[in-house]
Known about the structure:
10 helices
Amino acid sequence: MFSLTACLAFLENEKDEEAFLRYYERYHRLVLYEAEKIVGPSAAEDVMQNTFVYIAKHFSTFRSGSSKKVTHLAALCARRRALDYLRRDAKQAGHPAGEPPDEDTDSVFADASLDTERLVMTADRLEHAIAVVDSLPEIYRDTLRLKMIGYSDDEICDILDLNKTTVYKRLQRAYRMARERMAKNDETGT
């Protein structure tokens, strides 16, 4: 069950609380929508709670700026909290020590056990690619992350308040920088 009380506890004064309540009224549907897309309706309220607690803790950042930027921040924060939720859920879903996995899990991973080294290398490569994207300058990183999440160029234009040419150029530069950094790290072996 969602509780605004937990969020309001992080705010310093009544003026901030009133501003936060207006912010909540304006963006709670967006946050819930973004959460539901990733974790489904059953866990979306938990993600929404985590998102608004985070927003309350950093409210000065979320209430300043253009409307499109604030909307983008709310959506991005909801997606990140949803992904964090999925990661925590996946860790907790592991099998207890000494207990064999059920047959369904065993059949799903039967082929994977044949080539464990390849899977580990793929996971390492994926972690490295994520680190490379995280290391990009903010203007390229945000544009590329939105594209990777599945937003169209037009949606990215709306979220970041940019024209289509700028989004296209930023994506091209982000791809190029990421490829160069990946290649450089492959050459150095790091």
